[in-house]
Amino acid sequence: MRILQVISSSATSGAExxxxxxxxxxxxxxxxxxxxxxxxxxxxDDLAGTGVQVHQVDMRGGWGVPGWRHxxxxxxxxxxxxxxxxxxxxxxxSLVATAFTGNPLVxxxxxxxxxxxxxxxxxxxxxxxxxxNYIQGLLEGSKVPAGHIDVVHNGTxxxxxxxxxxxxxxxxxxxxxxxxxxxxxxxxxxEKGHQIAVNAFPDVLDRHPDAHMLFVGRSEGEFAEYxxxxxxxxxxxxxITFTGNRPDVARMLDAxxxxxxxxxAEACPxxxxxxxxxxxxxxxxxxxx
Length: 289
What we know:
By secondary structure, this protein is an alpha/beta fold. The protein has helices at residues 14-28, 41-46, 65-78, 88-101, 116-123, 133-141, 167-172, 194-207, 222-233, 249-255, 270-277; strands at residues 2-7, 32-37, 53-56, 82-86, 105-109, 127-130, 149-151, 180-185, 211-216, 240-244, 258-261, 282-284. It has two domains: 2-154, Glycogen Phosphorylase B (Rossmann fold); 159-284, Glycogen Phosphorylase B (Rossmann fold, 3-Layer(aba) Sandwich). The strands form two sheets. A seven-stranded parallel β-sheet has the order 3-2-1-4-5-6-7, with helices on both faces. A five-stranded parallel β-sheet has the order 10-9-8-11-12, with helices on both faces.
């Protein structure tokens, strides 16, 4: 099949990593896959040598005319058997484009979002994929026809995982060998619960003075700066390490005894799946996803 994967974000978060991994595996299984996103930088590097063609598409706000026109042109030229959109902006642009090209459309819903576009997609006999039963319930509650919804849970790429020890990670961050590591995997954002982790950490240190916490993920923007200041003001900067965005999340998890997920909202978090794949326990909040 000729398949176009479309995502309206180029961040290195769960939905983006999932869609890139999906494109890679579909191509490896004999399909011809194209990938469209707003910024091709890390995506192009990640998919280099796979045979997946990467297209940079302007998906900025408003009516998105440049975006759906570009996708329409791709659909007509490449004659896709399937267009697979991830996130609501990509779903909207793909819905408009496929109305002109006639390409079948599948929309994956990765997060709690605005559901109007998925109601419109379902009315045109397209399929809507929920990444968890929780998201399926939200879609049905937003009047997306249940008969058009399929649940396909997120997965993680076990083939990329080569188990390692924690010594090299401790050496990289110049940590004593007797430190016991745990951490939170995910961009530093309010909904991911970093504030909760920072607030709770002094109590952890009282009971486990050899503990050390890793924050693995992008740490940019106002909230990330706020959390970094909180860590310093509480004199925890020698016990909490911000690793930044990492291509070797599996290696970071291998160094931990367990991971935490104090998020306020999740759909089907890759961080949990990745931790389980690394045989690491997860301490998390009781969320729907």
